Amino acid sequence: xxxxxxxxxxxxxxxxxxxxxxxxxxxxxxxxxxxxxxxxxxxxxxxxxxxxxxxxxxxxxxxxxxxxxxxxxxxxxxxxxxxxxxxxxxxxxxxxxxxxxxxxxxxxxxxxxxxxxxxxxxxxxxxxxxxxxxxxxxxxxxxxxxxxxxxxxxxxxxxxxxxxxxxxxxxxxxxxxxxxxxxxxxxxxxxxxxxxxxxxxxxxxxxxxxxxxxxxxxxxxxxxxxxxxxxxxxxxxxxxx
Amino acid sequence: xxxxxxxxxxxxxxxxxxxxxxxxxxxxxxxxxxxxxxxxxxxxxxxxxxxxxxxxxxxxxxxxxxxxxxxxxxxxxxxxxxxxxxxxxxxxxxxxxxxxxxxxxxxxxxxxxxxxxxxxxxxxxxxxxxxxxxxxxxxxxxxxxxxxxxxxxxxxxxxxxxxxxxxxxxxxxxxxxxxxxxxxxxxxxxxxxxxxxxx
Amino acid sequence: xxxxxxxxxxxxxxxxxxxxxxxxxxxxxxxxxxxxxxxxxxxxxxxxxxxxxxxxxxxxxxxxxxxxxxxxxxxxxxxxxxxxxxxxxxxxxxxxxxxxxxxxxxxxxxxxxxxxxxxxxxxxxxxxxxxxxxxxxxxxxxxxxxxxxxxxxxxxxxxxxxxxxxxxxxxxxxxxxxxxxxxxxxxxxxxxxxxxxxxxxxxxxxxxxxxxxxxxxxxxxxxxxxxxxxxxxxxxxxxxxxxxxxxxxxxxxxxxxxxxxxxxxxxxxxxxxxxxxxxxxxxxxxxxxxxxxxxxxxxxxxxxxxxxxxxxxxxxxxxxxxxxxxxxxxxxxxxxxxxxxxxxxxxxxxxxxxxxxxxxxxxxxxxxxxxxxxxxxxxxxxxxxxxxxxxxxxxxxxxxxxxxxxxxxxxxxxxxxxxxxxxxxxxxxxxxxxxxxxxxxxxxxxxxxxxxxxxxx
Lengths: 241, 199, 457
Prior knowledge:
heterotrimer; B: alpha/beta; Rossmann fold; four-stranded mixed beta sheet; about 25% strand; C: alpha/beta; six-stranded parallel beta sheet
């Protein structure tokens, strides 16, 4: 199985170990991984802030780059970016020929945990990590892509890790892209409710499938001087946590 | 009356805006990932038992009796010493405020929710079932239908339904003050449905 | 509080510890009850899909359905009035009350009548108006507006309500909810007995029979619509259902979504006027059909779904933003997720431009909406409309994204910018400050993923 990595601009620039971990996990799962360094971004920031023309331009670039790949699948360590790609066809209501191209790309773009469990049918990637951890369901992955059991199955096979559920695992962390800086007080109020549950659960780490959520949660935990770490699922599975 | 102008303008506005949307209406591409669960049949239960259980769940009282003598006894037990108004009494609305118990029949029952259905074209039950703090309704067991859908279907005859139909599910309630449940707000504080198993 | 000061409203709400506690309790409880009620029906998802399909059909053919509804209601004795906007609706209703020499009006809870500020208009016309729904009565006494679609006084504690009753009604101080309720009951009974006119909203208008359906728990709607000689019902144009049998679906969805009940205590099905003068009930039924900006929403399939709303309030309870700031901060009769999308469309984008951005797009609202309104899709649509139509207010942002697009469509430029970013990241202005006020920020990597890849492959 040949996979083209869609690393996301956030991971590329702010959390590269998520990218390197994703590559390692995919290779361990038996995939050949390519990376086309002409990729930049999925366009989500512009789309979410209402700038559809700009989002469309960036989406077109994305489609053009990844159309040239001979890989069987495009895999990304981000639920929100994957969901954005799945929304590409909506951007092209006035350009039917682009709709088709967008559909074709969307159909082969997968979020990492979904790809491992649903496509490769692999739930154990030979990972190990000692400690108690909890999973945060990132909103787009959960509600747009239906990802819920897949990460949990992968985590349950991590030797030495004890998965503890928090009662508000499905609640938003308050990031929401530009929302986090347009309405920072509301963003942090929402975040603190998540943090409260995490602290009460007595875990060593919080795991999620979206680096943006982890930045939000991790940024607050470290500001509060907490010893609870944040880790991306890919990092956990690659044993680079 | 403004009817002519306002009506025309509103209808025109509706049509004009719908016409504008036609341009987008077949073009909106959307990927839906909503799973659709299929319905499974509810196991069928005796309707009277269901009705009783569901009414009691919402703090209503349900009394099962056989025949008119037992109905009378039940009413006497509930309403002893209290001023009673029935749907046959020709009382004015204002007078009803002085009464403590209102007694009506019941046109239908809905088992799945413990709901009593009153049709004001059959008897004068609209205010008697509402104003006094205690409402007693006498319902034949044979008028209890399993589901809401059954009742709606029964109530409708072609395009016709009675002018004023009321569904009653338990005594009146509110949780508007700090979410604390309070029974008996504007409507009756107590609801008794006496089911005559003989009919 | 108004929509234009949303940001300040929200900040103030966040500082109100008591409000946040009340919101937390209420939204958690309502959410839990909704979940349980939905789970108790094995065909919940099917019901939602069917309900949405019915609403889509109604809205797509609203002109025909509305005309048939009115014909059927009128042929059964209702008098139907048409109101293009709030002012016209109030003018009609005030005229009806004055023509009948009325002085005392009792009202049941209706968001539509709040929307048009009916009470103010009636009071100006010399009417005594009393809200009879307990929550609405409380906020009327307090001279406030509702903060939740279903539970208007959710933001008030027992103590605050007790103090209010002592001040306004001379009730001896108490903490007992039953006593407070009982006081409201007896006070309002006097008003019911004296009322000339009863005004209600409409939950559903049934086209094929000309019936209006109103749903409640307290009994005040039954009193409002049975005791006074005249009943005026205010109905938004979108409230229609084609068939009486459709109620099976909607009466299952509405109470479960709103409060977790299988069925609310009372449903009133009112069709025209009484058949005989000696029958019980009002002599006259007036239905005021209100547009007030609704017809505009029909112009695009994405905005049209706004009109499918059955006003259950489930989205409010599920929304992480609403859970923190409550309803008043939105400055609108309609708060929360549905409020964020219909308020700008009803009162104008310019006045409510902040609302569509006050969301993290988490999608919890879409999950709980009984008629499957895709609120995030609507929010994104409105954000796009606002950014296209209001360039003046967002010039810097627009430029920033134009620049961003230029960079993101040129990989070489993207890489150069990223490298520059490493050096100058400390100088990135407002967005960074907004973040770092309360959260630490990861620095830009000294070696990006792509640089690492190139180095190792």
